Amino acid sequence: MTASDLKSTTTLHNGIQMPWFGLGVFKVEEGSEVISSVKAAIRNGYRSIDTAAVYANETGVGQAIAEALQENGLAREELFVTSKVWNADLGYESTIAAYEASLAKLGLDYLDLYLIHWPVKGKYKEAWRALETLYKEGRVKAIGVSNFHIHHLEDVLKDAEIKPMVNQVELHPLLSQQELLSYCKEQNIQLEAWSPLMQGQLLDHPVLGEIASTHGKSVAQVILRWDLQHGIVTIPKSIKEHRIVENANVFDFTLTNEEMARIDALNENRRVGPDPDNFDF
């Protein structure tokens, strides 16, 4: 991992450049809240924004992007925008329709990355076929999945013409997903972490606090640095500009091998979100 700043990218297996670091907008309210946080992120150098149909804030994200491009003199191609198809829309025709709906709300001509949000049994393979169609038609730059375990990925790969480029999953020091990370690296699928800070639950963790004080950094910065050093794309969420700036201030220090191992050892396979093998929505 050689991320040196917010514009540093990883190369997906189809050659597309994806920033290592971005802003997530899960649970960020539609309207002024999401508009101001996305604009603050872009103004402060972020180039990747991650939303989803079910977050119900794509319209605000789109407005923020349009305004930020103009205000900061950026071209659309300089941003990397991700959205996701919701469970109710999984299916061939319905996934393509959902993609159109997301594009319309975002006011964009294309997405950089489109993901299947959850592996709904019996539905995600048809949805994957739809994503392959969108990709082959050049309507989306990259396609992938979210919340897929190894067995879900293996199931998709049995019939897929195109391998997923990204798998976005819950990942943080108490759920370090080491087996999944190894599998994705073998398959050349980029792993991406959602809820990297465990929704704030890790910010007073003593081991992380000790490592943070060694570097004169916050616990959040240590966790996000740990992600990057493991070759994991990360998208912390914040609505406060000072926190958005602070989260991204992770390129001027390096965790030692020993510190990385200490953080790895915190794993408890503990989730804050649903288990992808056991959800009912």
Automatic annotation (TrEMBL):
Signal peptide: none
Source species, domain of life: Bacteria
Keyword entries, A-Z: NADP, Oxidoreductase
Presence of the UniProt keyword Oxidoreductase in the record: yes
Limits of the NADP-dependent oxidoreductase domain: 32-268
Family in the record: Belongs to the aldo/keto reductase family.
Protein name, entry field: Aldo/keto reductase
Organism of provenance: Paenibacillus planticolens
Lineage: Bacteria, Bacillati, Bacillota, Bacilli, Bacillales
